[in-house]
Each structure stands twice: as C-alpha cells, then as structure tokens.
Amino acid sequence: MSTATPLPAYNGYEYFVVSSPAEGVAHVEINRPKKLNAFSQPVWLEFGRVFDKLSADADVRAVVLSGAGDRAFTAGLDVQAGSQDGHIFGAETDVARKAKGLRAHIEEFQGSIGAMEKCEKPVICVLHGVSLGLAIDIACCADIRICASNTRFAVKEVDIGIPADIGTLARLPKIVGSHSWVKDVCMTARDFSATEAREVGFVSRVLGSKAEAVGAAVQLASLLAEKSPVAVQGTKELINYGRDHGTVDSLRYTAVWNSVVVQSEDIVKGLTSGLTKTKPKYAKL
C-alpha cells in the first residue's frame, strides 16, 4: 500500500481524518482512538458532512472507511455523552412533545449515518477490533465489508434497553438473508466473530490484521477507481434500488437509467479498449 497523502479539502474536520492512499481513493478514519472511536452527536453530524462532501467530490472515485488505532473500529455510541443527552433526559414531561423531539433527534442520527449509503461513490468498510452497536449500523451502509480476524462484533442495543434504531434492523436482514440469524444476534446482543460474520455473508473477506484489511481495501478501492465512474456509480445506484423495490420497477428504472448512460463517452472508451487491448482512462464525474 502506498503512503497516504492528506486531502486539504478535508482538513477542517475534528473527528475524522481523510487522506488519499492511491489515486482517486479517499481513506476516512474515525479519529477518537482514546474513546474507542465512539460517537457522540457532534461526531455523527460530522460523519454525515464528510460523506456528503465525498459524494460530490469528482476527484474521489472510491472510499475506504476504518477507525484510528488498533483497538476499535468503533465501540458505538459514546455512553458518557449519551447519558447527558437532553433529548432523552430533558425536563419536558408532556409525552407528545417529548416524543416529537426524540423522533427528530433519531431521524437526524439516521440521516447522518445513512449519508454513507447515499454517497454516490462505492464505500469499503474495514472493521477491526471492537465493532459494536453503531459499528453494525455503519457497516450496513457500506457497499463492501471486510474485516480483521480479531474483530469483535455485536448488535448491543438490546443491552441498553432499546431495539437498534439507526439502520441495522432495516438493512441487516437484506444483507445476510437469514432472519433467524439476524434475530439471534439482535435479540441476544451476543458477540459474534469475524469467521461467523463471513459465514453468514455480512463480510466478504477476513484478513489477519487491521493493516492487512486496510491494505486489501485500498487495493480494491484502487481497482474501482480505475473503472468508468459512470458505470461504477450507476451500478451502486441500481443495486441499491433493486434491493428496495420489486423486479418490474427495478428493470424499468434500469432501462431509464441506461438510456442516458449508453450515450456516455465511457462506453466508447470501454469498447475501444477491449478491441485494442489498451487500458482506458476515464474522465471525472
């Protein structure tokens, strides 16, 4: 893996470090290692802003996400910050008014984490070490998930008295295809290993260490960055649409989408490169 270079456009973030380890690749690191990269409200709001910016950045074609340090991808919600959350423990006593405020608070949290799923660029999530609670919500928003062999997974929300509410319960069953397994881990809050995560299809690869997993992710992101951004970003959009819609609607959407895409210069470059045995170079999107 090549040495990462800072991306000046992303220097202003407090909780995330964004660098470029390869051309067209952005590496986002959750940067609270002393807190096991746990999330408070300022962290999740910044997370959303980072991925909104990456989505619009034509210089970025693929993204890798990991946590700073070796101990954790993220331990989930910052419990100390959560215990002081005025939305939950505020003085408002009217049930309807408190519920309205809480609903807006949860939707804000969902939207910030969901910004990674909505990001137009493919995102590879590298899980390692402690990966609990919100870690699963975040990983479910990624396009590709790989992990280190020491990763400790758990959907922990039941142990703090709530169903998971930031996306795991909606997305995880569609990822692994086994409601039995999903209910097992989500209702018991038990730990599961990297091996189990791969067996059920939650992750596609397990590497020996965090460094190896990040290296593999950067290598994969570099390959994606060489492809037509029109094709790669369109593929992400169409797969996600198909996940959430029926076959007839998905085929209709694909036809409309590709009626535009087949007119792109990228298809000419792709076809020509196949005939001439040369490597195409695609313009930014």
From TrEMBL:
Subcellular location, principal: other
One GO CC term, this protein: peroxisome
Pfam families the record matches: ECH_1
Biological process terms in GO annotation: fatty acid beta-oxidation
Leader peptide range in chain numbering: none
Entry keywords, A to Z: Acetylation, Fatty acid metabolism, Isomerase, Lipid metabolism, Peroxisome
Subcellular location: Peroxisome
Full protein name: Delta(3,5)-Delta(2,4)-dienoyl-CoA isomerase-like protein
Organism from which the protein derives: Hapsidospora chrysogenum (strain ATCC 11550 / CBS 779.69 / DSM 880 / IAM 14645 / JCM 23072 / IMI 49137) (Acremonium chrysogenum)
